[in-house]
Amino acid sequence: DLQKLAEMSMNNGVPDFIPPNLPSKCTWSLHDNATENPHRSEKLAPKPKILSNVLQYIGDTPLVKLNRIPKEYGVKCEVLCKCEFFSAGGSVKDRIALRMIEEAEREGRIQPGWTIIEPTSGNTGIGLALAAAVKGYRCIIVMTEKCSSEKGNILKALGAEVIRTPTSANFDDPQSNIRVAQRLQKSIPKSIVLDQYRNPNNPLAHYYTTAEEILAQCDGKVDMVVMGAGTGGTVTGIGRKIKERLPHCKVIGVDPYGSILAEPADLNATDTTFYEVEGIGYDFIPSVLDRSVVDMWIKTGDKESLNMARDLISKEGMLCGGSSGSAVVAAMQAAKELDENQRCVVILADGVRNYLTKFVDSTWMAERGFRYESEVLIEGQKPWFWNMEISSIAPESNLITIGPEAKVSEAIGMMKQGGFDQIPVVSATGNLYGMVTVAETMKNVVAGNVRVDDAIEKIAMKEFPTIERSDTLGRLTTMLKLHPYVVVVDTQPDKQRRLVGIVTHVDVLNYLIIADNYEH
C-alpha cells in the first residue's frame, strides 16, 4: 500500500520515502462545481513597463502561428504554438516553480535561510534556482545523468548545487533522483522538497495562468490543445480549465515510447527502455496527472521528435527544445481531423538553449541514427570507406568480459591487469548487460556510492555508445568523434544484444593504414 509506505519510518518528521505516485487528494470534478475551491486563485494582469525583478517576466508568453510545417503535413486548420521558451527561465516550468515557492512562503513552510531541494529533469530546477537566486534561498537540484550538460551548467551559474543520479534507476530505487532528494531533506535542517509530482500548485499554475492566457489570446476560440506530459501538471491544469470553458475542445496528451503515462495501457507496449527526449514521460503516474481530461494520447519516438524540433528551428525560426518536436509531431497527426475554420494550440515547453550539444548538433544526431550521414557530410566529401560494413574491421571478439554479479574489486583488477579502460558486463545468457569503465568506477568509489565488495551491476552503465555489426564505418567514425570507444553488437530476434566487440580510434586507424597500404 503506497499510502502506508509513505507513512513508515519517520525521521525528524520526514518519511523515509514519499512515493510520487500516491493517489491524488484533489476533489476537482468537471461536473461538480459545488465544492468550494480551497486554493488561492490568480488573476492575469498586464506587466508593468519596468519590472521589479526577473520573476515578473515568468509567463505571459506569445502564441505564434506555424506556417510552413502544417502545409507540408496537409493540415488545414490554424496551428498556434504557445512559446514557453520566452519565459524568464526558458521553460513552461518557470510558472510552477514560482507558484510552489510563493505558496510555501504564504503557508509558512519555507522561510529566509531555508534550503530548497528538488528532483527534476532540469527545467523545474532552473525555475526554482532562478527564484532562489532572486529570493536568497539555497538551492539543491537532483537530476539524472541523462539531462543535458547545458541544464547542469545553467543551474550552477544560478548558484544551485547539482547532484546527478543514474538514469537507469527506477523512481523507487534508492539511487533515483526522487529518493536522493528526500534523503537530503532528512539530513539538511530547515530544508524542503517542494515535490512537483504531488504539489497541487503545479497544475494550479497552469490552470490560473497558462490556460487563461491561451483562452484570452484566442478570444475563446480553441478546438484542440496538444501538450507533452511529464509530471502532468501542464496537462492537468490546462486540460481542466479548457474542459470547463470549452467542453468541445479536444485535449491531446503526448507521451514518448518507453514511458507509461498514456492510456489505454496497451499504447505503452514497446521494446524501448531509454529515450533521448527530455522532460516528458515517466515510469510511474505522478499524483498531479489527471488523465481524465485527456481525450486522446499519442506516442512519439526520438527520431521523429528531434527531427521535428530541428524543422521548427530551420523552417519556422522557433528556437525550441526536443519535447516541443514531440508535441508538434503529435499535433500534425491529431489536427488532420480539423478543418480550415478550426484552431489547434500546441505547447512548446522549452528552448534550444538546453540542447546545444545534443539534438542541435548534427553529429550527435547522426551518431544515434536520427539523421542520415548524407545530411551531415556531402556525398562528394565522403571517404572511400564510408559505406563499408563494420564487419570489415573485424573487431576483437575474444574480449574479456565480467558478469553483473562480480565484485567491483574484480573489475578494477581486470582493467589494471589488462591495461584497458572498459569491460563489457555480460549476463549468464550472453546478453550485453552494460559497461564498466575506469572513469565511472572511480567516480562512484570516490563519491561513496559503491564499495569494492559490491556487485558490479550497481555501477554498470546501461547507456553507452553501441552500433550494429551491419552498420557502416561512416557512422562508426561519426560516433568515435564523440566517444573513446563504441560497442559493436548483434541484436537478436528476441531483442537480446550479443556482444561482437569493442572498437576504438586505434582499431579504425589500424584498419585504414593496412587498407591504404594494400591499395598502393
Automatic annotation (TrEMBL):
Its cofactor is pyridoxal 5'-phosphate. It comes from the Eukaryota. One of its GO terms (molecular function) is pyridoxal phosphate binding. Its EC number is 4.2.1.22. It catalyses: L-homocysteine + L-serine = L,L-cystathionine + H2O. Pathway: Amino-acid biosynthesis; L-cysteine biosynthesis; L-cysteine from L-homocysteine and L-serine: step 1/2. InterPro entries: CBS_dom (IPR000644), CBS_dom_sf (IPR046342), Cys_Synth/Cystath_Beta-Synth (IPR050214), Cysta_beta_synth (IPR005857), P-phosphate_BS (IPR001216), TrpB-like_PALP (IPR001926), TrpB-like_PALP_sf (IPR036052). Pfam families: CBS, PALP. Residues 393-452 form the CBS domain. Keywords: Amino-acid biosynthesis, CBS domain, Cysteine biosynthesis, Lyase, Pyridoxal phosphate. Belongs to the cysteine synthase/cystathionine beta-synthase family. This is Cystathionine beta-synthase. The lineage of its organism: Eukaryota, Metazoa, Ecdysozoa, Arthropoda, Chelicerata.
